[in-house]
């Protein structure tokens, strides 16, 4: 995704050319900054989910979030990275080799300019993407899943399910080579993968006790701490500059860093569009501007622009994000009608807005990019089939072996006391 | 604000010179890092305000903060940037042209080294400043303003009122060209503009119900969540490194990056001075070290140093910040005596400390800078007249059309239930 | 710690060499980014501690955290930096000179390429390390120490105690020159120093009222807000990329930036190891995966890798971090058996894991580095003797003059009302 065309004007004066060593440092720095921003998104998901579950399940949700990030790190090192990028480094030990070596091979003395960036910095950036995928699942299945089966699912998701999807596209596989599928920073690869895994989980695990009454009645279980959810959303928004911006993969040329800048603006404006669209829509529809919808509107805008944050104009970006927000407003109640219990709205945000963002690339991509609506659709469907099938196997295996749900007594009392032994807010009297 | 004098030693050895392409990348990177740090300040204001309002109005305050940032983004794109920088780009469509084009025109293929940085990165950095201005207003008028009129005010503020002030100084207009007015990062342009708009809003909207009793009695409405307010302050402090540091506008030379470093230190130390001054002062005056005063002391120190964070010595910076803190301790009770109800103390912090910081530049600026006390005073007064007049028109128009305040019943019950429909802390029993 | 060997391949092609001016900017930028990330750790400690104390002491804890950071800034400027780096700058006024001048001397016009980075950027980076040391003490002695004596202790700690330790190693003193002691980013210098000061404080101040009953009974005082503690941990984790990564002190060569990247990965993976180890261990031992243990496991992993985050392989880093986590699980109850009351577990995390991390460097360091187990042990012991002795003098002096503890009535009622006058959560009904 670099812009070699831009090298020309820069090269006009020899002193304006950016040398290979300097470019290497810039490219590496982009991965490092992008990496720590995306790592920070793990805190964003933790706060969003801690704010949107009920007080009695909050500690468990916190534990799940710090645990899933850590498991993702270990599994992506053990095997995930090697699956995702099978042919990346000549040092790779292949599909089932013990990973980490692909980058570990590049020791200090062996670093050279050929790669154009530090392999370790790229590995770090890829790892935090893997963790993001797991974070998405965590929110949907909250409040009625035990810690151990959840962590087992995360282990498989981050070791195998997600890396396989990545290998098809960013790893240079089938979707990339055959279909010219385009997914700049992962509307499908990251967000829809997490979304499909979450959807299948929600279906197999079932809704929270008492969530759906007879006659289609939906009981609202309001989130316990809206400021935390707001904080989580702002953290995610901030982290997304790294998520999309550093997916340019280089800033060692004038053209690349200009592209990163444009990505920052488009990413930001898509989120703005998502927020304003949800506020206007909920104000018109319900006579109240729903704050949780606005938060999810921001996230939907961000997910939608993630498949292509560079090519669209600012106006197009706002529109893409705004439609993402509209999708959320309409599909959150739809899921409830289908009795699919998604605690934080992750399926509308990450799956539905992710599909929207992926398909619309066919309209905004450069004419000579080869991107087609059909190619995008193939990518969406292939991801769906694989992730749903693989997730279903894992969820069902867990369900019929160690079990995924706590007892009804524990679920009603709240998972915190039994699962993690630590109440989230022990000093405060509860309303119910 | 670059330091061409510094280019000389760097150029001594040809290999030490920083080429044009490399400098372009560094300058752009400064805007990007500064931009995401200032964007993060939106979260800081959200947490500060969510922590300092009462529980019954917290969700509404969260919604206002994510909404105002998004509106600021859209309006600065539609028109604000073009008003602020009317002659900036030859592609500009002028005062009332449909904006965004000024930077949108610089597509990938057209990026060149003449600007010295990516125009999109600069636009992003400018946009987040615009949002900061709106955040200031939000805190003062909290707890008794409906969502819709608040958002309408924000729309006008970010589309017109703030950009006009910017055009006079950073846009190269009257204050800059006639008065040598100096405001490095916006003590007046950003913070006082927000502060004046907030003050006029507080006067026209009036105090919260029950806030001021007969006989000058002041009823304290304590903030609901002090750790969140603390978090918000730390976020703002962190963001301020971007706010002031990246206002150097360049780090592509040894001199520029050294200046950015000095700005980091001075900014940090002014905040330290503000904190320590307020802690000592409140301990001496009230026999208690007031935590909310300490938080506002940090912010006042930051606002005060913002007008000139480069020229002062470290010792001067500490003093400037400390006096900012002292101003807060004395003016918070003063506003209450005047029955001006400022929920979070934004007027002392952003307006009074902003004026102090702007005027003291006359003492700390370089002798050959042309900065005078009179010139600084003209800047302060002109900003006051314009922002107060324009804000008054908007606030009054809102008051006498759709109305700004909710009914007394709603205000007493809390805005959350009626305005956004989402309670902030539904699981917790309230004390009152 | 730069990697000059790496300059060779980079210099193969003249255009690949990174010029001195460019390297200066990169090095400075590393300090600035690292600096703001470590500054952000102050917020992390504040949230961690605010979440783990009881509601009635939360505002006081918030005040202590913003106050200690500010005092650290002032004292490190007044004298601390000069003590820590006595021979650093020729402009230094020596051990007891009035500081700040060492960097203040390097004005804009005087910046030159000889240093290789802006002295102000380095000063900022060093200052935030000093503040970190004080943050560690704050957590251990929470809930039963008055604000004024706490701030006096912080003043001495940041002005003298910590800088003396630094001078022995990073300042080129005894440990560095005689023992080849190695402590890359401060497992001993920062974390153990804070840990020893905290331990001595806990012993002299004594446990919280009612914490230890007769017959060895331990009364658990659960933390009031687990999501805040989780947030604090994530903030610290994020900040640690700056803490360890920027301790490379340079990224102006291909080798240096590759090393920084490796440090990012190792730091991240050590934390992952700490988390997973504590989750597995508490699940096996207590049949519950303890969330506060998992948080402290992350921090222990981070502390443990801090003494040498570059040399180990990824696998070794995971193991070093995991053992750090194991240490926490076993030593938290041990301290309670010894009736040493450490509110947040800072002694196991920062002291015990810090010692572990420091000693293990003898195994992971490069063979030709001169690092020995004995040398590492000398560093640990010398730090212990000095910090314990100096801290004891200060704590005892405070105890027998102005007193360190509030009255029993105030401690039982909570420090917030009496000490800072601001309740943390006034709107919420308490359970007890």
From TrEMBL, chains A, B, C:
Primary residence: membrane
Transmembrane segments: 23-45, 66-85, 123-141, 148-168, 188-206, 218-243, 263-281, 293-311, 317-335, 347-367, 373-398
One of the protein's GO biological processes: ammonium homeostasis
Coiled coil: none
SUPFAM superfamilies the record matches: Ammonium transporter
Protein localization: Cell membrane; Membrane
Topology versus the membrane: Multi-pass membrane protein
Record key words, sorted: Ammonia transport, Membrane, Transmembrane, Transmembrane helix, Transport
Domain spans labelled Ammonium transporter AmtB-like: 31-425
One GO CC term, this protein: plasma membrane
GO molecular function, one term: ammonium channel activity
Family to which this protein belongs: Belongs to the ammonia transporter channel (TC 1.A.11.2) family.
PANTHER family: AMMONIUM TRANSPORTER (PTHR11730), AMMONIUM TRANSPORTER SLL1017-RELATED (PTHR11730:SF62)
Protein name (Swiss-Prot/TrEMBL): Ammonium transporter
Species this chain originates from: Aurantiacibacter gangjinensis
């Amino acid at each position: 995704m670099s812009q070699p065309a831009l090298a020309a004007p820069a090269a006009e004066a020899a002193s304006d050319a950016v040398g290979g060593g300097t470019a290497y440092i810039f490219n590496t720095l982009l991965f490092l900054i992008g990496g720590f921003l995306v790592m920070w998104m793990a805190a964003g998901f933790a706060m969003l989910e801690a704010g949107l579950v009920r007080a009695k399940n909050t500690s468990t949700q916190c534990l799940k979030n710090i645990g899933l990030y850590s498991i993702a790190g270990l599994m992506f090192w053990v095997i995930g990275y090697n699956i995702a990028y099978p042919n990346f480094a000549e040092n790779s030990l292949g599909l089932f080799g013990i990973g980490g070596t692909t980058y570990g091979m590049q020791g200090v003395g062996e670093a050279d300019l050929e790669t154009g960036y530090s392999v370790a910095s790229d590995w770090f950036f890829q790892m935090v993407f893997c963790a993001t995928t797991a974070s998405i699942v965590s929110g949907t299945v909250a409040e009625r899943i035990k810690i151990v089966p959840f962590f087992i699912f995360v282990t498989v998701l981050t070791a195998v399910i997600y890396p396989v999807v990545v290998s098809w596209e960013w790893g240079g596989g089938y979707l990339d080579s055959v279909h010219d599928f385009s997914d700049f920073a992962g509307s499908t690869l990251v967000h829809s993968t997490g979304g499909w895994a979450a959807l299948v989980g929600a279906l197999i695990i079932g809704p929270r006790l008492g969530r759906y009454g007879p006659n289609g009645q939906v009981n609202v279980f309001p989130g316990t701490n809206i400021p935390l959810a707001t904080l989580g959303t702002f953290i995610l928004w901030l982290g997304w500059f790294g998520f999309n911006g550093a997916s340019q993969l280089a800033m060692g040329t004038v053209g690349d860093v200009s592209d990163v800048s444009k990505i920052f603006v488009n990413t930001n404006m898509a989120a703005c569009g998502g927020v304003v669209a949800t506020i206007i829509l909920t104000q018109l529809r319900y006579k109240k501007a729903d704050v949780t919808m606005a938060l999810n509107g921001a996230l939907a805008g961000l997910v939608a622009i993630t498949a292509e944050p560079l090519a669209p104009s600012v106006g197009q970006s706002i529109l893409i994000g705004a439609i993402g927000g509209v999708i959320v407003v309409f599909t959150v109640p739809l899921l409830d009608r289908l009795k699919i219990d998604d605690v934080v709205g992750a399926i509308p945000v990450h799956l539905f807005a992710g599909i929207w963002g992926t398909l619309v690339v066919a309209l905004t991509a450069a004419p000579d990019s080869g991107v087609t609506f059909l190619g995008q659709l193939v990518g969406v469907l292939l991801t769906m089939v694989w992730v749903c099938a693989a997730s279903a196997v894992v969820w069902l295996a867990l369900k019929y072996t160690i079990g995924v749900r706590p007892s009804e007594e524990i679920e009603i009392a709240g998972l915190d006391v039994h699962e993690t032994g630590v109440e989230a807010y022990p000093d405060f009297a509860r309303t119910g």
